[in-house]
Design brief:
The complex is a heterotrimer of chains A (about 260), B (about 300) and C (about 350). Chain B has about 300 residues and is mainly α. Chain B is built from 11 helices and 2 strands; from the N terminus they run ααααββααααααα. In chain B, helix 2 crosses helix 9. The chains are: A alpha/beta (about 260), B mainly alpha (about 300), C mainly alpha (about 350). At the A-B interface, helix 1 of A face loops of B.
Chain lengths: ~260, ~300, ~350
């Protein structure tokens, strides 16, 4: 299995606080990997380091891009998105005041080019590009199940729909790796099932998925492998059932994981 | 020449310092550049002028009274213009601040006329004119001394207030973290008002001294002085009171030497240039914390 | 923007076409004097300027206090090129545009990384430096004496054996101004509804999310600033060839403030709002300019009204009279960046 992302001895310090210590694991192409751990374990910090929002203190993050490998630790977030890593946010960061369709269109930004002169002169190239942006945006909306809702204002949508919109926008950046930060948070069981289905469909379209999640039903239901971190350190890794029964993991969660996995 | 410029620089530098601490204190507690602060400085001069010429008060009475009025103006400015926008985005507060600045300048023009007026020199103590010390071809008058001493006393007083008194501690707490300060029982709004009052009083004092010393007051005097004092505050590190004091003096001296040796036409330009360069190259200034866009939490 | 279907124009479109027709025939109406035409041309000029400035606070949410600097640079470049080299205005327009853009890039690149307040102050300082330069560099600009005798605009077909037609009086400038306004509005609409405009609105709404979509914040902010500056310079170039006289005190901070006021009043980010703001404020400015001296007050005091308008608008209708959705919710109180925390329990990481 070809790793698409290798995380190698990753450290991240915030002043005196060691948020990530010697994290090492790989993500293989086409996998759905779950990243779990108690609150404060450093999961979002890990995402931020991969996505370029934080700069690692030490260690390497290596992305396989085409037939090359690139070290992306410390690259700027725009560049990381351009290289094919998209992410959603724990606290949903949509463009609240823009329409749903505009939110997704903006996701297409990194794959398109026209700027000022294109906008004003509307060259053939720009027109074709706009048409493509529009068509693909509507397709992404349909893919996540928001067909026909393009003209709504993002802010006015229900919470679950906003999550799906954020995923649509992330998909619009044409990632190879999609990182979802607690996508099932606040969802009811039906919504969670729809989400799992969506994640599988995303993977079936050739996109690798890494997700942070607390909802163990989702983790057990959709992840093929699970990585557990606690206090910024790698704790365990393996098949979901194995990790679930790992005494160290249970101890880390003090039973909350076991209770939720019913 | 050198000594003369140095004396000029220190004199005006002390003035800039007094205005600059006002900017920096207000920025510390409400994270807003109070564009109208220069106008409070200007009003100080005009209040003193009015008290002397219309009410016939002596200088020593008009001065503190005008300072008090400026303190009140500062508080009113906060209550009516800035407090309603406490939760609003910064763009709105900035626009309001500029609006108030322009409003106050023009209000002064309506009340007192737009032409420059001489300060009633006869109200000043007679000995102000007399030379106190003379060295190296430079004459320091008692007025010079008055300004130096008053500036130092006020700066020291401010420093002590911030460091030692309860109000000072409260101000520092609010500047660091409003929510926590409120949770510890501090009445944040009152502390902010107090800060505006203090800033206003100092700014007003600076205005009176400048008007009296340079024998001229006019409604737009706050505009230029305010911008320069802001440059001084930035140089010292916005949010840092000692920084603002140092920044004021450094800027005053730099301006005096620049005007004396380089070009007096660009006297004001020196301050703007210093400000722009400092902001771009060392946004933290000498003592301050860097004001990057507050990183939004993930 | 929807396609124009000949028989189904919206009410809004009908209104605009009506206004355009009114504008076109205005000079021929019986009661209209040259002075009034002059004011209307001034309104058109300020529309162009306000639309240019609108890009920065309106589309991008940043406060540019130094817009008059670009206006002045455009005016003096235009004036000096005409005065010394007799350049045709039709050559000067694109030159002014590019010159403005270059200055926008020069000023913007180092400063647009800064927080909003610092950026505002730096732009303020910049415009003050421009005025100082214009006033003091007498060898170049004749300083406070001003630059008189700038040629009027002319259409010169002599190279092709045709006539040279000079712009005499207000009328030719009037129609030129209308054309320039229409072009500016056209450009603004095109930008608004494009990848560029979307990127700007994304930046305005949530910078972190914008970055996660691949938008390079600094680059796009600089583009916005440069285009804004370019329009300011073009406005300045028109001003120079229209007034045929320039002096540094025409480019003081008050102008920046006035143009900002138009945007604040009319509706930040809203093309029509900004134009209406221009109409209202220029009219008010001219009326007060005549009225105040009659009350024994200096004409400059009209800015008191403008200052008050700014303060009141921010207090009660911060997004302007005709707000646009993207801006309206943003400007309202209570909008500290919303955090949609998940309903589940859990300490924030």
């Amino acid at each position: 299995m070809i790793p698409i992302l290798e995380i190698n001895a990753l450290y991240k310090n915030f002043g005196g606080l060691e948020a990530l210590k010697d994290i090492t694991f790989n993500i293989d192409r086409g996998d759905i990997i779950g990243l779990i751990g108690p609150n404060g374990a450093g999961k979002t910090t890990l995402f931020n380091c991969v996505a370029g929002i934080e700069k690692p203190t030490a260690g390497r993050i290596i992305l396989t891009h085409g037939d090359r490998t690139l070290s992306i630790g410390g690259k700027k977030p725009e560049a990381v998105t351009g290289l094919g890593i998209a992410r959603t946010f724990q606290n949903i960061r949509l463009f609240d005041n823009l329409t749903v369709i505009d939110n997704v269109k903006i996701g297409r930004h990194c794959r398109t080019r026209s700027v000022f002169f294109g906008a004003v002169i509307r060259s053939k190239f720009q027109q074709a590009e706009e048409k493509a942006i529009s068509e693909s945006a509507y397709q992404f909306l349909e893919f996540v199940g928001l067909k026909g809702r393009g003209q709504e204002i993002a802010r006015s949508m229900a919470y679950g729909d906003q999550r799906r919109l954020e995923i649509a926008r992330a998909l619009a950046t044409e990632p190879q790796l999609l990182m979802l930060d607690e996508p099932a948070a606040g969802m009811n069981p039906q919504e969670s099932r729809d989400l799992m289905d969506l994640i599988r469909r995303i993977r079936d379209n050739g996109i690798t998925v890494l997700l942070i999640e607390h909802d163990m039903k989702v983790v057990m239901g959709v992840c093929e492998r699970v990585v557990v971190i606690n206090h910024g350190e790698w704790l365990a890794e393996g098949l979901p059932q194995d990790v679930q029964n790992n005494p160290k993991v249970i101890e880390a969660y003090l039973g909350t994981g076991a209770a939720n996995a019913a | 020449m050198f000594l003369q410029q140095l004396v000029n620089g220190l004199t005006i530098g002390g003035i800039y310092a007094m205005i600059a601490v006002g900017y920096t204190m207000i920025y510390g507690v409400v994270q807003l550049i109070n564009f109208a602060h220069g106008e409070i400085y200007m009003l100080g001069a005009f209040f003193a002028f009015t008290f002397i010429t219309v009410l016939g008060l002596p200088f020593y009475a008009a001065f503190p009274l005008a300072m008090v009025c400026c303190a009140v103006c500062g508080v009113l400015l906060d209550i009516f213009a800035y407090r309603p926008l406490r939760q609003s985005p910064r763009l709105a507060a900035l626009i309001t601040a500029i609006g108030m600045s322009i409003f106050l300048q023009n209000l002064a023009m309506i009340i007192w006329g737009s032409r420059a007026k001489p300060f009633p020199q006869e109200a000043l103590p007679a000995y102000f004119e007399k030379t106190a010390v003379s060295f190296g071809g430079v004459n320091l008058s008692w007025f010079h001394f008055f300004i130096f001493v008053l500036t130092i006393v006020m700066m020291a007083g401010l420093h002590l207030t911030i460091k030692k008194t309860r109000w000072g501690k409260a101000m520092r707490a609010v500047a660091q973290n409003k929510t926590m300060a409120a949770l510890t029982g501090i009445n944040v709004n009152r502390v902010i008002s107090y800060t505006f009052a203090l800033a206003g009083a100092l700014g007003g004092a600076a205005g009176i001294m400048v008007a009296a010393f340079y024998n001229s007051l006019y409604p737009t005097m706050g505009y230029i002085a305010g911008l320069k004092a802001f440059a001084a505050a930035v140089l010292g590190g916005i949010g840092s009171v000692p920084g603002a004091m140092l920044g004021g003096v450094v800027l005053g001296v730099a301006e005096a030497f620049g005007a004396g040796y380089l070009s007096s036409l660009y006297r004001d330009g020196i301050s703007y240039a210093v400000m722009i360069i400092v902001i771009i190259l060392i946004p933290a200034g000498l003592f301050g914390r860097v004001l990057k866009e507050t990183k939004k939490s993930m | 923007m929807g396609k124009l279907e000949p028989r189904n124009l919206t009410r809004g479109a009908k209104l605009r076409i009506g206004l355009l027709i009114l504008a076109l025939i205005l000079p021929f109406l019986p009661f209209v004097t040259d002075y009034q035409l002059h004011i209307v041309i001034l309104i058109f000029l300020y529309m162009i300027l306000a639309l240019g400035l609108n890009i920065v606070p309106g589309f991008n949410g940043l406060l540019d206090l130094g817009y008059v600097g670009f206006y002045g640079i455009g005016a003096y470049t235009s004036g000096l090129l005409t005065y010394h080299f007799g350049l045709s205005y039709w050559v000067i327009i694109p030159l002014a545009f590019m010159n403005g853009a270059i200055w926008g890039i020069l000023l913007g690149a180092p400063t647009l990384r800064l927080t909003g307040d610092y950026f505002a102050i730096v732009t303020f300082g910049f415009s003050e430096l421009v005025v100082l330069f214009l006033t003091n560099e007498i060898w170049l600009t004749r300083g406070p004496l001003g630059l008189p005798g700038i040629d009027v605009v002319s259409i010169d077909l002599t190279l092709f054996g045709g006539p040279k037609w000079e712009f005499i009086g207000e009328l030719p400038y009037y129609y030129l101004a209308i054309v320039m306004v229409l072009i500016t509005v056209f450009v603004m609409y095109r930008i608004q509804d494009s990848r560029l405009g979307r990127a700007w609105f994304a930046i305005r709404d949530d910078e972190v999310a914008a970055v996660s979509c691949g938008i390079n914040l600094l680059a796009y902010k600089v583009i916005a600033f440069a285009i804004s500056a370019a329009f300011g310079a073009v406005g300045g170039s028109f001003f120079a060839r229209w007034m045929t006289f320039l002096s540094p005190d025409m480019f003081k901070f008050w102008e920046s403030f006035l143009i900002l006021c138009m945007i604040v009043l009319g509706g930040m980010g809203n093309i029509w709002g900004v134009m209406i703001g221009a109409v209202i404020l220029v009219s008010m400015s001219e009326i007060l300019r005549e009225l105040l001296p009659l009350l024994g007050l200096p004409a400059d005091v009209r800015f008191l009204a403008f200052g008050l308008i700014m303060v009141l608008m921010m207090r009660f209708r911060p997004a302007g009279m005709l707000p646009i959705a993207a801006v309206a919710a943003q400007m309202r109180a209570g909008r500290t960046k919303r955090r949609k925390t998940k309903p589940a329990m859990g300490i924030k990481k």
